[in-house]
Structures are given as C-alpha cells and as structure tokens.
Specification:
Elements (H helix, E strand, L loop, with lengths): L1 H4 L1 E7 L2 E7 L8 E4 L13 E4 L10 H14 L2
Antiparallel strand pairs: 1-2, 3-4
C-alpha cells in the first residue's frame, strides 16, 4: 500500500537515517537518487541510489485478502 498510495520511508545513509518520499504508484525496481549522500570526500560526495523492493507479507488476514480482491475487481472495472 505504501508503493500504491505513496508515503514516506526512512533509509540508512552514511550520515545516518534520512526520510524520503515514496511517490504514489511506485513500482518495484525503481531507483531513487539521494544527491550528495554517497561515497567521497564530504565536499565532493557522489549520489546514493536506492532500489525500491515491494515486499508482500506472508499469511494475509482474511480481511486484508478481501481488500486485495476488491482492489483487483476495481482495477478491471
């Protein structure tokens, strides 16, 4: 739902945790760039790239499964 609806997430960088925005309808495999958060000297650091991975939990509750089925039906309407 984070990738579908958009949200924020915390990612670890060399300087510690950073909050990033996850855009609505983000797909698995998309690369996000954090300018100046990569390797290098502090005055000339490169960029850090983050690859989005969509994780679907095991053992969905019946209620959550019903919501997914409803979303599937709505997407074909």
């Amino acid at each position: 739902w984070v990738a579908a609806l958009g949200s924020e997430a915390t990612v670890e960088t060399l300087d510690g945790p950073v909050r990033i925005k996850i855009a609505k309808q983000t797909h698995s495999g998309k690369r996000l760039r954090l300018a100046g958060k990569g390797l290098g000297k502090p005055a000339a650091r490169g960029d850090l790239f983050i690859r989005v991975e969509i994780d679907i939990p095991d053992g969905l509750s019946p209620k959550v499964e019903a919501l997914f089925k409803q979303m599937e039906e709505d997407s074909h309407a």
